[in-house]
Structures are given as structure tokens and as C-alpha cells.
Amino acid sequence: MARVLVVDDTESARTVLARLLRSDGFETATASNGSEAITAVEKSPPDLIILDLNMPQMDGLAVLQWLRDRPKHAAVAVVILSAAGAADMERARALGAKVCLSKAKASWPEIQREIRGHTS
């Protein structure tokens, strides 16, 4: 069973995504900001991270940079799910995000497809 870490500063987004992922058979963990995400990754590395870019304390781009700077975690797949602008989404791709999805436009089937495509 693949383990997915959901990182978003909005509690309802974390809760809904984690619930949907568990119903799809994934093991889940959550973090409300980048600092918590790093702690979670160090404690128990996930197979995939669903990452928001706009967060307090440490944003998603800083988390991506942290992952890519550490060989032990550089291969963790990251799916961006954010309301961030085009420039931040492009920077996330440059830092190795597998896919960048807009919170406003992405459907659950699309999110599922991306997660399954990067955890199989």
C-alpha cells in the first residue's frame, strides 16, 4: 500500500483529500505547513506528496527545494495541488514536481489518476 502525505494549510482540504485517499486504499498522513511536512518526511518517507504551494512558515517551493537537495528524499514523487499562480507552478515543475494541478480546476478523478500514475 502506497503512503501519501497531504500538505495543505487548509484543514478541510487536508481532511477531504486524506479521506478520499484512504477510501482508495492509500495510507495517509497530513501536514499543515512545510515545516510539518519535512518532519513527516524525515520520520516516515512517503511514496508521494500532494503539496500546496501557498502556506505559512515554509511554502511548498521551499519544501520541494529541501526534497531535491537531499539524495535520500529527492526521488519522492510530488503532485502540486494549489491555487498558486503560473510562475510558481512553473518553478515547482523546474524543481521536479511530477504534475501541477489547479485547486480550482482539478477534479477528484484527475487527482486520482495522477496519484495512481506516480505510485504504481
Topology of helices and strands:
Blueprint: E1 3-7, H1 11-23, E2 27-31, H2 34-43, E3 48-51, H3 60-68, E4 77-82, H4 86-94, E5 99-102, H5 108-119
Parallel strand pairs: 1-2, 1-3, 3-4, 4-5
Helix pairs in contact: 2-3
Task: Output the CATH homologous superfamily.
Answer: Response regulator
CATH class categorisation:
Alpha Beta
Number of helices: 5
Order of helices and strands: EHEHEHEHEH
Radius of gyration: 13 Å
Q: How far apart, in Å, are the first and last alpha carbons?
A: 10 Å
**In total, how many beta strands?**
5
Major sheet attributes: 5 strands, parallel
Low-confidence stretches: none
Please identify the structural class as seen in this structure: alpha/beta
What count of domains describes the coordinates?
1
Instruction: Give, in spatial order, the strands making up the sheet with the most strands.
Output: 2-1-3-4-5
CATH topology: Rossmann fold
